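Entry: Serine/arginine repetitive matrix protein 2
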Amino acid sequence: MFDTERQEWAGSRRERLFDADRYLDLPRQRKVLQHTAVVLAVCGVSFSVWALGWKDEPEPYRPPAQEGPAEPGVTAGDTASPGDGSGTGTSDDATPTDPASPTPPAGYEVLDDSQGFRIALPSGWTRESQASQYGIDVVEYRGPDGVRRVQVFQLMESSPHASVVEAQKAQSKLDGYRKIHVQYVADPSGGEAAEHEYTADELNGESGAGAPFHVIDYRFEAQDGQRYALIVYGEEDDGREDERALLDTARAWFCPPSTQCEAPQAS
């Protein structure tokens, strides 16, 4: 007979050779099917074990991606330890320290007066005060010689210059009065300031030792917007530089009541 599937002639004998299982008896066919099922089951289990083992294998290590560009001079695995000066780390030892607090000139001390203001004066001076008609008490610091002194008080006039001009009218009546100048001056705080500098043979009715006296009457607008006076007294015969230095230091360190002021920097 002609086999159309294989496109050839074949007899019954040859047909049995191509498909021998078809001609086996039923028991033998069942045995062959069982063997085939066992082989397939073993193959399936083997494949499952291999697949699960491959799935659970750890993925190869990949280093974490860095955020942003790498810093120059630092490679992967480099670690900058604090304080060793390497890398870009910051050491606590390299933290800048605050500069030393400013101090007044030698021989001076900074005082916090009971009236609330701060001032710098020579060490060892005594203090007196009396009530004022306006603002803080009139405070007077006096040196051991009894002549050098500094007065501090608050002004009731509308401006430092107006106050200086008004005071100069009274001071001009002192015995031996000689005006040096009455003028506007520059104040460290940037506010308005005026100064009356003069010499006289008496101080508010007080005469004698130290005469003639050298006086600088300095009136200014402070950091709190209020107006104050610093009046410095000394001897004329020993020169005027010491009174000027006394005034400059007192003004530089002066801070009005209830006000935060930075300490002046050394010039």
